[in-house]
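Sequence of Ferredoxin family protein (Nostoc punctiforme FACHB-252).
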Amino acid sequence: MIELVNSDRCIGCDICVKVCPRDVFDSGDDGLAVIARKSDCQTCFLCELYCPVDALYVSPHAEQDDEVDSEQLIAQNLLGSYTRNMGWSRGKMGGTDKDPTRQLRILNRVGREEQPTPQRQLL
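Predicted 3D structure, token representation.
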């Protein structure tokens, strides 16, 4: 479940707001992301994956609310750690075999290549 938006790192890009499939985030009055509907989080990690500045921490515990300390997460290098583990770098898609989205992109590309190009009929 999403546990933290680090306000010192957040740049207000709203990428997390846009990629969240459950509409968990809002853009705050100061322009920074705010966790508005935490209980709606499905722990998909998309927000953490796409954050370009490693400002988010998603706990792997989907069903419980973990109390986290921002300074401790920073000291343990846990902000953005899921992103790095997937082979991504600061919001950029990865290419390692550990990245399940890479496999989806490959399958999607292969699927498009296998489909015949529609032919136009001449009248």
